[in-house]
Structure formats: structure tokens, C-alpha cells
Amino acid sequence: MTAAVGMVEVLGLPPALSVADVMCKAAGVTLVGYEKVSGARYTIIVRGNISDVEVSVAAGVDAAQKVASSKEKTLFLSSHVIARLDRNVETVLPLHYRV
Hints:
The protein is about 35% helix and about 30% strand. The protein is of the alpha+beta class.
């Protein structure tokens, strides 16, 4: 059985580091990495059991929404949780996590 995947996308590296820290502290998840999507857009990716991933992503979203830019716009862009990746997806896009 594959572990759940949680992702939070933010604008900027400082918010990405803050969100990754909060996500790891909020629940028993493993930070498997981040993706620099384009420009200053970063997606933080965690794995673990579904309940821990949901708690972690919620905490990450909350943290990202609290970080404001100098123009007072939110740096949070999006989030998503996938309960179980299909094996095909896991093979093509390995997220370096062992259950």
C-alpha cells in the first residue's frame, strides 16, 4: 500500500521553508522534497498516513496564509492531498518514500 501525498504551493523560498517546517512539526510526516515550479513558485511535498498528511497540509496552509508579502498579498497558492497514489504514478513519478 502506498502512503498519502500532501502538497502545498507558495510564492517564494522563505514561505516555502516556513511551510515545510510547520508541516513536519504538525504531524508524523516525511518531507520528501520540494519542486521549484516556475519563478518563485515552490511546492512542498510530504508523505505519510492519510490522517497525518491531512493535518500537516492544513497546518502548512495556515502557516502560508499568515506570511504576507510587502504588498499584503497572500503567498499561499494552492494545496492538495492524494490519499493513495496509483502504482503507475508511483513508478513514473517516484517520491522517494518507503512505507
